[in-house]
Amino acid sequence: MPFASALIVAEDTATIRLVGELDAHTAPDFHRSIQDAARLAIARLVIAMDELEYISSAGLRCLIFARQTLGEEVSLAVAGARPAVARTIRMAGLDYGIEMTEIDDV
């Protein structure tokens, strides 16, 4: 499945939907989506990962970039991560600064 990153904005929440595999080759697309979201007046950024099949260290770096760029005043959530992706995020310790939620909860 080819990678795709789409930014959707509704009121004060931005959602970045990720599809496919997030690795060093595709991370710049996700990085740009984060930068676009950071330019908006939002209170929450949701990263929908229910269709993401794989995340590499480059993808994890993008999550760190999102947390640092948005600051603590903007809540950040990963929604619907598949078990392998969620495990990678948790093993990196990123679930402490990023809310992990089900896709139905956003």
Describe this structure as you would to a colleague.
- The protein has 106 residues and is α/β, with parallel strands linked by helices.
- The chain has three helices and five strands.
- Helix 3 links the parallel strand 4 and strand 5.
- The mean pLDDT is 94.
Percent of residues in helices comes to 25-40%
Biggest sheet character:
5 strands, mixed
Strand order of the largest sheet: 1-2-3-4-5
How are helices and strands ordered from N to C?
Answer: EEHEHEHE
Shape summary: globular
Task: Furnish the topology, listing elements before pairings.
Elements: E1 4-10, E2 13-22, H1 27-38, E3 44-55, H2 57-70, E4 75-79, H3 83-91, E5 99-101
Parallel strand pairs: 2-3, 3-4, 4-5
Antiparallel strand pairs: 1-2
